[in-house]
Amino acid sequence: MKGPSAEILKALETAPNIYLILSPDLYIITASNAYLEATETTREMIVGKHIFEAFPDNPELPDADGVQNINASLQEVLRTGKPHKMRIQRYDVPDIRQPGKFITRYWDPSHTPVFDENGELSYIIQLANNITEQVLADKIRQKLEISERHFRLLADLVPAKISNARPNGEVTYVNQQWLDYTQLSFEEFRNFGYHQLLYPDEIKEFTERLANAARDKQPMEMEMRYKNAAGEYRWHLNIASPVLDDSGEITMWVGSTTEIQRLKEDDQRKSDFIGMVSHELKTPLTSLTAILQVLQSKLRKSEDSYVAGALDKANQQTKKMSQLINGFLNISRLESGKILIERQPFLISGMIHEVIDEFSLAGTSHIIELQNCGKTVVRADQPKISSVLSNLLSNAVKYSPKGSKIFVNCEVIGNEVQLSVTDEGIGIRPEDRERIFERFYRVKSNTHISGFGIGLYLSAEIIQHHQGRIWVESQTGKGSSFYFTLPL
Ligand code: ADP
Question: 371 C-alpha vs ligand 1 centroid, how far in Å?
Answer without folding.
Answer: 23
